[in-house]
Design goal:
This protein has one domain (12-160): Mog1/PsbP, alpha/beta/alpha sandwich (Protein Transport Mog1p, Chain A, 3-Layer(aba) Sandwich), CATH 3.40.1000. Strands 3, 4, 5, 6, 7, 8, 9 and 10 form an 8-stranded antiparallel β-sheet that branches. A 3-stranded antiparallel β-sheet has the order 1-2-11. Mean pLDDT is 92; it is low at 1-6. The protein has 2 helices and 11 strands. It is of the alpha+beta class. A hairpin with a 4-residue loop joins strand 1 (12-17) and strand 2 (22-27).
Length: 162
Amino acid sequence: MTTPASSTPAPAHEFVSEHYGFRVTLTKDWSGSDAVVDWNGEELEGLSSPAWANVTDATGRTLSAARARVAKGTELAEWRAAMVRAAPAVCSESSSAEKTTLDGEPALAWTATCSDGYDVNKLAALHGTGGYMILLASPSANDDGEDRQIFESMRSSFSFTR
């Protein structure tokens, strides 16, 4: 006799970035480290940079987030375009973006496929004087649907703390 699958959600914990002023809820199998230096907003080097807050799970998925100061009057579409230009040359960015939100702020979400073996869900948002960039990089072998579900769960749990 088989036991039915449990519908109980995995235990959760909260990751807090003191450096960039946000929190996000993750399942307990994620561990991370906060940024230790400010990000310049010019390159998307999230997975290993000390300028990015990074949280990783056992499957190799990494949620990376950073904030850079933006010029007054910067529009969200301009910020997203700058982030597309900032992507590594090994990544092919989707040409369109989906309108969404990040803690009530307008945001744009899109994907990238990278020849280094990663698929990336990306989100750009503006909050206060900063431009935020959120990435969920996942090994290409992982399930894209599951990656999207994890990304959406993180997006919906995200909150600015300042």
